[in-house]
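A.,

Following up on our hallway conversation. Structure tokens first:
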């Protein structure tokens, strides 16, 4: 089953898409697992990958792009979307010394790229669920009882498993099975 959300999701990213337009968002729900998956095209847009780069919009193309290392600019982009008023947030995503080294090669490592993609995926889903960037931020930066009163953003940054826990909470909120 595929669901389409409103274009509100794109308010935060449409200014930086090459066409400046609003693109469709598709959230795929796996009925057997009750989990939501992020469409590669939306993830590519949140990451700021060029819209004309067709390979980055297919599942395996995006996976390859992440494994080979995303451009360093993705750090600023994701940090500005998730925590626009916090100039230091990017250093939670990539340590400052590492960030400075990566600026010389213009590319993140595979692990760093995976972490950024995980945060971008959860950000996009949170905006879709809440239909408002401020409410999505409030959810991500407020302790949540289903993750032992940890902040969802901290759990997402920490590990892939933590990211999946937050995705499950968001999917439950969207489809009515979690509080």
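Then the amino acids I'd put at each of the 179 positions:
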């Amino acid at each position: 089953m595929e669901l389409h959300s409103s274009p509100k999701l794109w308010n935060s990213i449409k200014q930086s898409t090459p066409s400046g337009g609003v693109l469709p968002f598709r959230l795929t729900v796996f009925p057997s697992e009750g989990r939501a998956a992020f469409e590669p095209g939306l993830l590519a847009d949140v990451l700021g990958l060029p819209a004309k780069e067709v390979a980055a919009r297919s599942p395996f193309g995006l996976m390859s792009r992440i494994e080979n290392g995303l451009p360093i600019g993705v750090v600023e982009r994701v940090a500005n979307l998730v925590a626009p008023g916090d100039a230091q947030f990017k250093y939670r995503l990539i340590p400052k010394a590492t960030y400075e080294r990566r600026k010389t090669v213009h590319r993140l490592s595979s692990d760093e790229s995976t972490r950024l993609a995980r945060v971008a995926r959860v950000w996009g889903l949170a905006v879709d669920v809440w239909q408002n960037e401020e409410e999505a931020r409030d959810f991500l930066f407020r302790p949540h009882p289903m993750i032992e009163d940890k902040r969802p953003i901290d759990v997402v940054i920490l590990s892939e498993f933590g990211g999946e826990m937050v995705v499950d909470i968001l999917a439950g909120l969207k489809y009515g099975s979690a509080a």
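The CA atoms of residues 14 and 51 lie 11 Å apart. Curious whether your intuition agrees with the design.

B.
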